[in-house]
Amino acid sequence: MNGLPLRQLLMSLGEPLVELQAAPAGLDVPVRHVAILDPEDPPTAAPGELVLAIGARGRAALPALRAAGRARAAAVAVKLDGPGQADALREAATEAGVALLSVRRETRWEHLDSLARTLLTGPDSAEPGEADTGDLFTLAQTVAVLTGGIVSIEDTSSRVLAYSRSSDSDEVDDLRRLSILGRQGPEPYLAKLREWGVFSHLRGSDGAIEIAAHPELGIRRRLAIAIRSGAQPLGTIWVQEGARPLTPTADRALVGAARVAAGQLVRRRRELSADARLTQTLLTGLLEGSTGPQSLATHLGLDLRRPATVLAYAPAATAERDAELSRDEVTGLISVHTAARHRGALLAPVDSRIYVLLPELPPGLPQATLRDWAQETVDAARTHLAIPLRAAIGPTVPALTDVPASRAQADRILDAMGRGGVVPDVAALHDVQAEVLVSEVLALLHDRPELRDPRLTALTTYDARHHTRLAESVLAYLDALGEVRTAADTLHIHPNTLRYRVRRAEQLTGLDLAQPQQRLLAMLQLRLAES
Q: Where is the PucR C-terminal helix-turn-helix domain (predicted)?
């Protein structure tokens, strides 16, 4: 048994069951068997095994990892009691040279065991007639033999996916030649096919249709059939007639070929989708610091030692509802603009934010360049989607290992930008240093009620009960550095009204706003209440 690459096993099992924590030997190591290691048994393993370390939580799984490494097993799956255990186990797995999978706490071991065994033995238990049909090029060549024609397989956008070989170039017409050379049907010919109703006939037919020869256009006779999965169109198979007529059973051969091609294209889409899900899982784990960088680097072939940075995007507070409705559009716009600037850019939507990892940056890339990239994206979102975005530029870190720190700083910046005030829509830390630090002091006050002055708490409570605006007036007075007229203009009230409110607040609470410490604490605590 050759085994299933670890990459395929992870794609199939997916994030709901397991997460990859380490893969020191890469993701192409073959998994041949599943073994259950009972906690009462001595730690043993065999080459190519996926070892399910049942009952050995956290550090108790270290002997199993070491034994699996000595035996050249493929991977060890464990359950973690807490996030702190992952680091020690990842280090042990890397030293042992064996992949480490963490299993969700709610996952039943027997369920994981059953799924893994099914995946490993699936090809051997296929139904009769469901043997491997090979790739699309093999299928195209088979159809050419069965029909006596020259075959191409295209997707729904008329892009050529595969084609058969032709020994005589004189048999190939202009439409076929230009399609193969350009990897897509040429527009003048496609326009003719639309004019003749070929594509509409294909959409409404389950069988093969015939397109007559048009020598004046350089088009020979051909058959075509739509490839579908249920009602979903996937593409078209075209058979061009060569020097000899097509076989009498060509149309029937095409019906079978379309069904085989549908299965292949559906599998291809599923594999691409599974690969994308695995990339997202590894990327999100790296950003959050729950998964080491080695797994993502191995999966995508990234250099761990090259600089990287994180850009973080979030809708402005006034646009959060609209941005939620247009989440796919926003993500698509960010991905297109970022990919135009950096070939290896990776996106990870997390809650209301969209993170962009820029790996393998050239050394010494100016932060002004990153700012220009982010500004271009923000401007495009405003122009094309009417959605105001904010963008935070995390620091460029020397290696992928430090990516969580870049993400954390980008989050600090976005948090501060989200609290309002006069801030740019694209910012690095030095642009909003004061806003970030004040934001974090306010977060500390929010989480630690014992640090607040009860007199200020009483003031906001009084406002809520009596529908007054004393706290708001005091904060405006303090923000204006005691300039009564400036503060009154901000609140659109008469200066005497402001003076009365400030005196009234001092009388009710016993505060003395002439004292610097009390002014400082009032500015912070009242700003917390306002936010």
A: 470-528
